Amino acid sequence: AKIYEVQGNYELALQSVNECIEALEHTISDEKNEFLNDLLIKKIELLGLHKDRDTPEHDKITIECYMRIKLLNEMMHGSRDKRTLKALRNLAIAQSKKKLYADALGTIQEIEEIEYEYYGEKSKHMAKTFTLKATLLYRCGQKVSAKDHMRKAMLIYEEIGDKVAVKGVKEKLKLFEERA
């Protein structure tokens, strides 16, 4: 797969990664899930390089890979582990990029619950999640709730003294209010 990738033959590289994933799924090994996780990440990279990367089929495959990575991390590390949290965040971003806003909102809700446990209500992580959630809510037509979440993010950033983030959130909030 790596040789094909270096040669720019992404179709064959993707095919090779798929074959590796399939073969690995039929083995019994303690490291199986770690290898699957790495192969799925490689598959996502190759899908991004492929000539047909902007097709609905590739979007579907990409989201499925992120879902499997999330499930593998939950199996290996538990549903409340930071690695699972990272997988969830990547899934939410991918869903958002593919305009699956309602799905992304559900994923963000999971992230919010875990981050609340890990970092507390007034953390920078929560502020980032509120900002992303606000954007998704806005895109789903829930403008009032979107503004509320953006204000929550702004208050957290103000409390922790992150002036750059406060400025960015204020600009987004202003856009939300102008477009309402």
Keywords:
9 helices, 180 residues, single chain, globular
Strand and helix map with partners:
Blueprint: H1 2-6, H2 10-25, H3 32-49, H4 56-77, H5 82-97, H6 101-119, H7 124-139, H8 143-160, H9 163-179
Descriptive overview:
With 180 residues, the protein is mainly alpha-helical. It is 82% helix and 0% strand. The protein is globular, with a radius of gyration of 19 Å. It starts with a helix and ends with a helix. The mean pLDDT is 91.
Task: Describe the structure in brief.
The chain is an all-alpha fold. Helix content is 82%, strand content 0%.
Share in β-strands = under 5%
The helix fraction, in percent, is over 70%
Number of helices: 9
Poorly predicted spans: none
Order of helices and strands: HHHHHHHHH
Shape: globular
Roughly how many Å apart are the termini?
49 Å
Rounded to the nearest angstrom, the radius of gyration is 19 Å
Helix and strand content put the structural class at mainly alpha
Number of strands: 0
